Amino acid sequence: MSTNATDGDPTATVPAPGYFNSSPYNYIPTEWICALYIALFSLSGIIHLGQALYTRLWFLLPTVVLAISGEILGWIARLWSSRNPNLINPFLMQISTTIIAPTPLVAANFVILGELIRRMGPQYSRLSPMWYTIIFCSCDIIALVIQAVGGASASSAADNGKDPDVGGHIMLGGIVFQMAAITVYVALAAEFVLRFSYDWPVRKVESETNPKRFVDQKTKLMLLGLGLSSLFIFIRSVYRTIELSDGWGGQIISTQVLFNVLDGAMITLAVFTINIFHPGFLLGNGHEWRRQRGIDSGSNSVDEITITPEQEAKK
To answer: So which domain of life are we looking at (predicted)?
Structure first.
């Protein structure tokens, strides 16, 4: 991506303020594809919002719903660029939002896996459910901050006609860090499932939550959905890492079909996968999640039984 108005050529045409000399994408985004992704993300987002409110799983609002909102903004910017390909603002808007937006989505997967570990048996996991959520969500926040700083730096540089490579390298660092966290997360999740399947506990726990290692059909479906969603996100992370490593003017970032398939389609599949394999329907609503953790307000114990005065007199 060239940000110099003349690129060292004194005879070159100087663009108007707020414009590049030519399309910074090295192509013009296809209008109908942008509109399609806006429609798909909007549909999934509306469904997710309704599902989160209905099931009272509030963590889905600052994770999945927020991620989808960012994707919608990014594709709106690309739609804007399809009609004004040389305009600076929509390009900067889409490059930042489409890189950063999936980060909260990853956090949702971390939370869901932590809940699965809590129910299936923490003795099969190297980390406790609480530490699993804390560590990986912290990594996700760190990745988000790094990517946001890099995006701001690249946007500021491009807006002022300077080289955005420094900001791009910072964004790349954030994506690499996130991909490393996802890789460790997938490895630990796979180990947990294998240990559970073969009854190879990592350690002993005071009270086993699932001593008979029973897994119902809904839990199996949640594991399947989580695996698919994580796979789609991982494929997208690998692509964006290679893309930014190749540079702003590289062949990868300049090929629209790669972005549409390996970024747009992968995140679309990931969010619709969670729509279909929804934790609120497969693992229960917010009340059930609190009950499983033994913190349900209104009861002192998950197995509490109320005894009436008449029953007490019969003893």
So the answer is: Eukaryota
In tens, the pLDDT along 117-138 reads 988 888 898 888 888 788 888 8
The structure tokens listed for 261 are 């398939």
Query: What is the enclosing helix (H) or strand (E) of 85?
Result: none
Q: Mapping DSSP to helix (H, G, I), strand (E, B) and coil, where does residue 9 land? A: coil
Cβ(269)–Cβ(232) under 8 Å?
Answer: yes
CATH architecture of 31-294: Up-down Bundle (1.20)
Residue with tokens 């086993």, as numbered in its chain: 208
Question: Which residues are bridge partners to 87 per DSSP?
Answer: 19
Rounded Cα distance, 203 and 126, in Å: 8
Cα 3 to Cα 161: distance, rounded to the nearest angstrom: 5
Two tokens, residue 233: 């996100």
* Start-end of H helices in 160-285: 165-198, 217-245, 256-259, 266-276, 279-282
